[in-house]
Amino acid sequence: MCGRTACHLSRDALARACAYRDRGGRRQLPEWRQPEKYCPSYNQSPQSCSPVLLSRLHLEKDADSSERIIAPMRWGLVPSWFKEGDPSKLQFNTTNCRSDTILEKRSFRVPLGKGRRCVVLADGFYEWQRCHGTSQRQPYFIYFPQTETKQPGSSGAADNAEDWERVWDHWRPLTMAGIFDCWEPPKGGDLLYSYTIITVDSCKSLHDIHHRQAFLMPAILDGEEAVSRWLDFGEVPTQEALKLIRPTENITFHPVSPVVNNSRNNTPECLTPVHLVVKKEPKASGSSQKMMQWLATKSPKKEDQETPQKDKSDTPQWSSQFLQKSPLPTKRGGAGLLVGWLKQEEAAPAAKRPHSQ
User: Which are the catalytic amino acids?
Assistant: First the structure.
């Protein structure tokens, strides 16, 4: 399942990262709704507000269904038919929605039937691996492979909409399929928009995190076409849209600090790559020996704090480096770019950095 995410980009950066083409082929930026409710975070948990993409037609009657907006919504769907006055009294968990039962449960079937499909935006999500023989769990950060683009100029600014995508050189957000609903308090008050993340069986490359055991991961929409078809409920019927819900192998991951275990911790350390270290034991079982070999895989050297820039040949490829050998090809890494971007943000004015909650 998906129970913890990160989304640290500023409002402007997130909109630029979600640039798209409308039905007429024009490059557009999604428009923010209630942007004051969005708080960038390195450690988001259920019941917090997270940014989602949805069709403008949901909020404007005569809008084009291909046009998009970004709106902060509560993580954990509150069904429109819920009769209590306090959403926290909902007796069942709606953080995630299994794809194989999505049409069976009323809480998800009803909004899906109304076309209330959304795309949940995040830097990535966290998953925990149970360590053999201990009660400890090692967290991992999972995200799209990142590629560095070459900007045409040094300013990094775009003069028109056609340049937005070309000069964007930051984190590629993870785009997860979701369903949202709108709940109105029985005694009146502000409408509450909330969402759930659809989950599917994990892809093969993530089985290593759970010792070859299958688990559930978010349904990731990989690419503009998949995102567009999922959002455009005016043109793409439900049954066609559901064909997009499947696992993807286009992901990468790296181990992170246990500081992320506490949801109150909200710093860049939550998603910064770490080096796994293991102590030598005098005796070890066969399983333990495999674990020792797994953890003892040669790690990249720590970056010299006084060196402003590393050579690209030293960029670590984190995904397969900390896991047992797999027949799958090595994933394209993004941890080196992530570290660089985080350092840039730390050097930026404090007003532009996300605040800790």
Answer: 2, 127
